[in-house]
Each structure stands twice: as C-alpha cells, then as structure tokens.
Amino acid sequence: MLQSVLKSIGLAPVGDYIQPRLSIGNAVASNEFSTGHFTIQIDSEKMCLMIKNGHGRIIWKSLHNIPFLSSSVGKDTISPGDNGVFRVTEHDEKPTCIQTITKIEKADESTVKIYGGLGPKLVVPTHMDYVMTFREVSHRQLEFSIEVTQRDPVMQDYARLFLTYETRAEEHFYGFGEQFSNTSLKGHKVPILVREQGAGRGAHSSALLKESAMSMLGGYGTADLYATYASVPQYISSDVRSLFLENTEYMSFDMTQPERVTIRLESDKMKGRILDGRTMLDLLTEYTSFAGRMKTLPDWVSQGVIAGIHGGKDRARDLVQNLRLHDVPTSALFLQDWTGERLTDAGRGVRFTRHWYNWESDEDFYPELDNFIQELADNDKGKIRVISYVNPMLVDTARKPRYRRNLFLEAQQSGYLVKGRQTGDKALTIRLGNDMLAGLIDLTNPEAREWFKGILKEQVFSHGISGLMADLGEHLPCDTDRVTLHSGESVATYHNRYPEEWAKLIQEVVSELGKESEAVCFFRSGYTHSPSYMNLFCTGDQNVTWDQYHGIKSAVIGMLSGGFSGFSVTHCDAGGYNTASSNIPGIKMVRNKELLFRWMELASCTAAFRTSEGIIPSVNAQFYDDDDSFAQLSHCAKLFIAFSDYRRVALREAYERGWPLLRHPVLYYPNDKTVRELSYQQFFMGSSVMIAPVLAPATAYVKVYFPKDAQKISWRHIWTGKYYPGDGSYQTIDAPIGQPAIFIKEPRDDDSLLNRLMDYATTYYQQKAHPPAAQ
C-alpha cells in the first residue's frame, strides 16, 4: 500500500516505474494571463496549460495531468552519411516523469513566464529547473521559449527537451518541409534532418530489388520513409493550427498517438512560435512572414521548356535545331555537364556518368562556351538561354585530362574546406560513389565564402548564363566527433543551417551581379529560411518509376508538401532522374515512353517545365527519340505556356502571401475527410484550376474527387467542356495521353486569365477528334 502511494506522488524507490504526472503548486494562480491578443492559463482543475487566441479559441493545450515538458538521457546515433545519406536512431533512457509548476507571472505587457522543475522523482538531488516564456510578437504570432536554468549534479546529462501537447484523432498535419512519402503526417514520427533521399523510402517487397540497384549506383544507401533534402520543423494542421521551432539541432515530431504530439529536441533550449489564423492559408502567410518568401521568377521561364541536355556543344546545337524543327517552344537549355564528364564505377559492372566538380568550363565538351551561349541568345528564331550547374563541393582534378585550375587544391591550401578532426589542416573528404571523393566549402569561413563567390562570378556567370541549379546543400556530415568548422560551431547545430547559407551565398552572387530580374537559381535542399533566398525549388532526384516511394507519385507529394512549408514555387524533373541499368532480373530500372509522356504532362502544370535525361541517358526514353516524342514535348510546352497569364497572378500570391502555386485541396476544404487523406491524386494550381495527373501505367482515365463546396461551384473539364458539380462525389474522367484531367472552377473568377488555356485545349481536343485528312 505504501509503495503504491509513493509511486503516485513520485517518490518510488530508484528503478521503479513512476506514472508521469503534472504537479501544480498551491500558489499557482489559475487566472488567465494576457499577452495582448493571447491568453495563457494554468488550469488547476483540468491539470493542463492552455493557450487561447483573442477570440477565445484554444490554439494549444497540454494533456490532462501529463507533463508537457520532460527530458531524457542517451546519445543518438547518426550514420556516417557518405553521399549525404543519413540514418538516425534515437536513444532515450531514464526519462523524467514529473513536471512541477511553481509560479506563473506576467513579466511585462506582452510576456508571461512559467517556472518549475523536471525530474524522475520528487526527491533531491534529481531535479532541474526550467523557465518557459511566452511573448506576443504580433496579434497572430506567439513566441515561446524553454530553457533549463539549473541542474542537480546527477541531472547533468539531461540535455534534451520534449514538448508534449494535445491533438484530436481527426486532426491531420501537413508540412515538415518537402516530405515525399506522405502528405498528411498524422500517425507518423517525422525526423527533422536535411539529407539525401537515398535509394528509396520504405518501399515494400516489389521495390526492394530496385532499391538494391540504386544502392549499387553511386554508393547510395537506402533511407527511411522521411528522408528529404528539405526538412523543416513546422506544420499546419487541418484544425487550422500551426507551430514551428526556430532551433536547428536535430529534432523529431511524433504524431503516432492519436491524442498527442511530442516534439523531441536535442537541446536544453527550445524556441518557436504558435500561430493563429482563420484559415490554413492565413497560417501560411503568418509562417512565411517569419521564414521569408520566395523571390520573383523571371517571366522568360514561362516561354517554354527548359531542356536538360548532356553531351557537349555539338550535340546541344543539334538538339536545338531539332527542337525548332518540331515546333517546341524552348526557353533554355540546362547544361549540367558544362564542366566535363567523368565515368564513374558503381560496382558490379555498373558505370554511369558524373560531372567534374571543378567549376570551369570544359574545353573539350564546350569549346568557346561564351560564344555558344551568345549564339543561342542571338538566334533570329527566338532567344534560348542557358542554365548551368554548381554545388559547394570540389574534386581533385589530378585525373582530369585537361584543366586550368585545381580548385580543390586551392581551397585546401587556403583552409576553405570543412576539416576532419583527425586530419589536421587537411579537408574532410566526402564519398560520392565508389571512386569519387570531394571536399565541401566551409560556409562558416568568411574568406571561403568570398573566394567561392569570386569563382561563381568569374568562372560561371561570366559565360552569360541565365541561372543555375545550386545543388548538394545537404552533404555536411552530422558527426561532431568527425567534423570541425572554421567558426567553431558544432555541426550538430550547423548541419541544417548549411543549405540556408548555401542559398544565401548564391543569392548574394546574383544580387552583386545585378541579375535579380534575369537569373533563375533553383535548389533541391533547404531549411526554414531557405525560401527567402531563392526563386525556384525542385524535388530533386526521383526514380524513373511510377511508385510513391521514389517515383513520379513522390514528386507530386513532395511539391504539395513543400508548399505548406514556404517552398511555394516548385517543379520536378520531367521524366525522373535515378536510373539503374543491369542485366540482373528485377533490378533494371529505366524510363519508358509512357512514363516520360505522363511526367511531361505533370511538369507542364508546375512553376517550370524542365526535362531530364536521367543519370544514364542512353537507356531511358527521351523526348528526342522520335517524332511522336517531340510532338508530346511540343504539346506539353504549349500547354505550359497556355497557363502563363494565370500562373503569373498565382505566383504573385506566393511572393506576397506565401501561398504555394501548387496547393493541396485541404487548404480550401480542411473539414472534408476525403480531402484530408489525399496525397498525390489531385491538386490545385492557384485557386481556380484543379489537376488530377495520370500517375499509373497503362491507364487512360483517372478518378477525381470533387469536394462539396458551400458556394455550389462546378468544375469545367478543359478538353470536353463538360461540367462536374462540387458535390462531394468521385467521377471517372477520360485522360488519354496528351489530355491530363484539368478543370477550371465555374463560375469563373480568374479575370479571363484562363481564356488562353481554354482556347488551346478546345483547339487541341477538336484536332484530336477530327484529325486532318492525310494528303
């Protein structure tokens, strides 16, 4: 009997389990403390902490008699991360189970403080003190911070914090950066760590062999379900609630239990904000006012396809002629191999092509690159721009046949590269495949930043390019025992910041060159503030497959998910990228024509229409294979252009309000259960266009859900002109190749900006229905 009583009040002997509980001191007032537009209350009867907005709506609440703050000991393990693939295993031991609240007070007109302690039991010396501070930043943003202020000696290793609070089983969570496996993360535990996606994310047995193939290809490892280039500690929920952390240390958001959320942070200092808004779009506006909004995308991007091409100047010139011959509107070439190509051994007889990470043009592949770029710009058949490629890594060029500068050696001799703790003054080399090692620019070193900016100005932009892909911001190793930075900052806090600083460096170069209105710089990695430094984002490398783990479906999930976290102007590789050529049954993974055609259709409905040949171009179906492929590319490029007037206005909402161009339907129908559970099936462009891409092979139709709308709207199919009421029903829509399921909201509220799209679709449909007689 005595033991039972002792456990219930937190005084059990060492080693015995104690029921977690919240202890509120008798002196703690249950009054509501106002910060202005928010109220903070410790409710002694309900045994919880409650936060309300100015209208009395609860926007955050802890669970009844459960600690909302806790801690534990244990050292997490993060895999070494060759090729940027990191796997995290959390370790928690001896968790605290008692939280006390000893005082709540109003520090000033906008600030409320809560004081108390944490411990495994209520006896000395097993205790540490904390202070939790709430401060109103604006009438819709409440900042909170938690800090451990004192520890008893036996509590010195309790260096992480858990924040636990209430949710509903029906509340769905969206965001967390660019997630690729699920749009709603209810029921999941999401790690927040910027990293390479790896070969696959949780694929089941049917895809395991393909994962094995990708593991061989370039040294990629398989990753977990949540591996992403852009990871952000932020969400927006279907209950119109939002919370984010400002920390950069590793953390995770656990939503596996239906009634609670637990944030786990590898720090004893936590800082974040709770947002208020009337709609989910309001919350996006509030969040992006903090994180920053994407910059204006130049209009030239809407003038046609950005054609991704490998193979050198002569091949690029031939393909341009063919693009013009087949009436393909072309805005730019993406020349990823401008620094030359190196043949990489991936093991087991697999070889593929990578580029030289030595940022100077290759005179064998692209002789007189400046003149070629000017030739494309001056052509009387229409200006074609060139987009280049860079990343913050450098490779020793000792094996390269010809080069002018060895940037790796220059950077190493000057101390500009990230160093290893065991290598002294030498750079830490990161493995990028079986036979490729690279050094990484140390962005904490001001001299290194200026030196690399000079390289970008003098050896990249000087050729006359109109932008670039700024790749590989996710590769900084996470191991504090392995890596040392110039600033002395721990990689544990800097790893997630690295892609922000990489994007900031690129933006500084563009600004200093005066190219803000011309240049397109797109990225695949990011953290909280990254969008504020870029005007285009991409989903990175998908497999050339149909699946949702790493194929075309995952590209849609990624674009929609990123939109909840401020990555509002985005696109994907049309056709995918990761390819595996092998004679081993079940491992071969190459792109067929049907997948390429459907991916072109999807890409035409995004912010930028860019093709990719894939990592092994010779085995993939390509837009230049035959007249049929050129015709599909021409059609999709014209469809992309037909959206341009409307898309420009929708993009203005991204720049001014933080609203994504591509929008998950839950942003408009948060109370619709069917909508909440949609992932890749359909999405909006702006508010007046709904798109349901075909994402399965051998399929000429899609099932489209038309959410029930209080305004009694209808959706007009652009190809047939047929109307479908917004009545909460599913409808089967014909979608042959060339006619993806696209609908316009009626009554029209697009100010006639979609007339061009309707005219193009009507003409195309009639020509398909009544083709001209053969001559």
What is the structure about, briefly put?
The chain has 15 helices and 44 strands. The protein has 775 residues and is of the alpha+beta class.
Q: What structural keywords apply?
A:
775 residues, alpha+beta, Beta-galactosidase, Chain A, domain 5, Immunoglobulin-like, 9-stranded mixed β-sheet, 15 helices, 22% helix, globular
Mind explaining what this structure looks like?
With 775 residues, the protein is an alpha+beta fold. It has three domains: 2-194 and 232-279, Beta-galactosidase, Chain A, domain 5 (Distorted Sandwich); 299-663, Glycosidases (TIM Barrel); 666-769, Golgi alpha-mannosidase II (Immunoglobulin-like), CATH 2.60.40.1180. The chain contains 15 helices and 44 strands. A nine-stranded mixed beta sheet has the order 1-9-10-11-12-20-17-16-14. The protein has a seven-stranded parallel beta sheet with strand order 21-22-25-30-32-33-34. Helix 12 (627-642) packs antiparallel against helix 15. The longest helix has 16 residues, at 627-642.
